[in-house]
Design brief:
Elements (H helix, E strand, L loop, with lengths): L1 H16 L5 E2 H7 L4 H13 L4 E4 L2 E4 L16 H11 L6 H14 L2 H26 L1 E10 L4 E13 L4 E6 L4 E6 L5 E8 L10 E2 L5 E2 L3 E7 L1 H10 L7 E3 L5 E7 L2 H9 L5 E5 L1 H15 L1
Antiparallel strand pairs: 1-3, 2-3, 4-5, 4-8, 5-6, 6-7, 9-10, 11-13, 11-14, 12-13
Length: 298
């Protein structure tokens, strides 16, 4: 399972790097509960197997591979190349020209970024389908190998699933172990299984409200942000539902007016784009961001 998770994470990173605005180190590290050093190792590995990664802080991008000059007889993998693919994914040493030939052949068959996206989507879709059925049948499920960014742990979590939200990116579920309703990111779940038990704690399944950034709670907090174009498009890419809360301002930027239930989610987004977002209100959010910046510096 450990090797499988590593392979999946590399493919997921490739898929994120191929997005129009790339990915930030902080965002990917938080989403998949890895260290920034591990993120750098993944980047080095991806570059070693033939990709060119552009760095435009805070974002990273992958360039398209030039397909000119490829012929039909290049669509042949030998045993040495097949073995090298595994070694590359696991971070071992490799011969760069040979690795580049592999990338060209993979691109002749289909884009590697499409493979990455499809693989990632397949895993997530399988998890979502099983949990959706468990919700209908009122069955408990085990979230296998769940990566928790808060506790920095990876372990199985038994839950009673309540509902999905934000286009199935998050799951709201009751966890008997902590006796709390919690939210779980679907792409941090390695696998989901039913444990054969029905719901036992339905009276605790209160459905908290959830904001655009995946934070839940009861009392909404009004927020207002000023974003430049880059921050605006990154916001829509990460949170498409935010479009209805955005308007253009007179300075050719954008304003976001919405409600959140915690500063944690929106705060992470702001901190991931330094100098590109201004907090207009509330003052409490400004103080939250300032405090986090001081913590990072110290």
């Amino acid at each position: 399972m450990v090797e499988q998770t590593k392979i999946l994470r590399v493919f997921q990173l490739i898929a994120r790097l191929r997005q129009p605005f790339g990915v930030t180190k902080q965002k990917f590290s938080e989403d998949f509960s890895i260290s920034e050093r591990t993120f750098e190792r993944y980047l080095n590995l991806i570059e070693e197997i033939g990709y060119t990664i552009e760095r435009e802080p805070p974002c990273y991008f992958i360039k398209k591979v030039d397909r000119s000059g490829l012929y039909d007889d290049s669509i042949v993998f030998n045993s040495q190349e097949a073995s090298l693919i595994r070694d590359c994914i696991l971070g071992q040493q490799m011969d760069k020209p040979l690795a580049q030939d592999i990338i060209k052949k993979i691109y002749m068959l289909t884009d590697l970024d499409d493979i990455a996206a499809n693989l990632s989507h397949h895993y997530t879709a399988t998890v979502i389908n099983l949990i959706s059925n468990a919700i209908k049948a009122q069955k408990q499920v085990v979230l296998k190998g769940y990566h928790s960014a808060k506790s920095e742990t990876q372990r199985d979590r038994v839950v009673e699933p309540i509902k999905f939200f934000n286009n199935y990116r998050y799951l709201l579920a009751f966890e008997p172990e902590s006796m709390q309703v919690k939210q779980f990111k679907t792409d941090r779940i390695d696998k989901a299984e039913e444990n054969g038990k029905g719901f036992k704690y339905q009276k605790y399944h209160k459905k908290n409200n959830v904001d655009l950034f995946g934070m839940s709670g009861q009392e909404p907090i009004k927020v207002k942000l000023a974003l430049n174009k880059r921050a605006y498009y990154l916001l829509l890419e990460e949170y498409p539902e935010a479009e209805q809360s955005c308007t253009k301002d007179k300075d050719n930027g954008f304003l976001f007016k919405g409600k959140v239930y915690s500063f944690e989610g929106i705060g992470r987004f702001i901190l991931g784009l330094p100098g590109q977002i201004e907090v207009i209100e509330p003052q409490e959010l400004k103080e939250f961001v300032k405090k986090k910046i001081k913590e990072y510096i110290l």
